[in-house]
Amino acid sequence: MLFLFSDVGENDAPTRIQVGSHLDVPRLLEPAGEAGLSYLMLAKKMEMMPERPLALATGEAGTVYLCHPFLIHAAQPHRGTKPRFMAQPPLYPADPLQPYREDGSYSPVEVAIRLGLEL
Question: How many CB atoms lie within 10 A of CB 91?
């Protein structure tokens, strides 16, 4: 989640979001299996990801972005004149992610993982 507590315009260091990257990350993680990858190991593999357009998380105070946990995002320098206030608290899933369920009752996050894995 990304909470904007002040107005954030293009010059106010909005978070950069790589549109659609949540569909690429599952393919990078899948070969590692249950062991997963450290952040640094995953960051090295991101060079293999396709080029994606960037979007800026701008908005008025009170705007909340609910993002897939695999969405690639980053900070950037502040070029505005007023400070911006934001927070990025985690939103943990109620149950562990299971992209291979027998009953097919996938959460929206799992559906996106499956799309990324082309299942």
Answer: 10
